[in-house]
Amino acid sequence: MTVVVLVGVIGSQLIGSSADSTRTTVEGSAAPPGAPRSGAAPDFTVTAFFDGATFRLSDHIATDGRPVILNLWASWCYPCRVEMPDLDAAALAHPEVQFVGIAVEDTPASALGFAEEVRVSYPLAHDVDGLVDIHYPAPGLPATYVIDGSGEFVRVAYGAISRPQIEAMISEVVGH
Question: Which structural domains are found in the chain, ordered by start?
Answer without folding.
Answer: 23-173 (3.40.30.10)
